[in-house]
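Appendix B, example 12.
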Amino acid sequence: MAQSSIEWTEMTWNPTTGCNKLSAGCKFCYAEVMSRRLQAMGVEKYKDNFKLRIHEKELELPYTWKKPKVVFVNSMSDLFHKDVPIAFIQKVFKVMKENPQHVFQVLTKRADVLRYYDSEGWLEWTHNIWMGVSVEDKRVMRRVDLLRGTGARVKFLSCEPLIGPLPDMDLTGIDWVIVGGESGRKPRRMDPDWVLDIKDQCERADVAFFFKQWGGTNKKAAGRELEGRTYDEMPELAHMI
């Protein structure tokens, strides 16, 4: 568990750590860079750097949180990685179900695995499990359709790092879209027109829009204002907790 500086969540929880690159959005993976730092600091969970690891002990943590939280699940991994056993994923879902006071935000690039497991009836969706997919450019737009086909109660898209335009998205059944530019030493440029187009699509479809950051080599200086204001829209929390 860790308090998070990610603007759209409150804290992170990592029942698994480690991953491998899957698509263009992974090129400058922040989690991989962070894992190297944590390994150098001697943090046991990252002793194998970014190799996938499962942490059964982490499953106990949500039961200890006193107040309702908004929790990003697996900020340092992907719960639907092919090497994570379905039995362990089901344990994670059981923990989330048994802690309905918290909102759990799960994000994957492996929408095909997610859709398959769901189609087999192996996942139990409760109101507090928000399921999202990463959509960095139109080459991976199919992830949206795969997400839409699941039984998740709240569905969202993370268009970060946005490295290409996403015109004419079908946002049917989508509740929330997050957009952000890439940060780091060699970030790829995000065109403001791509962001504005996604914002307009969300407005037309009545979908909550969250602009996370412009990114760049100094993301703090670049800020997160779009056309002079911040966009912090989220799916309604009040009736879910």
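Helices lie at 30-40, 86-97, 111-119, 142-148, 192-205, 219-222. The CA atoms of residues 111 and 143 lie 5 Å apart.
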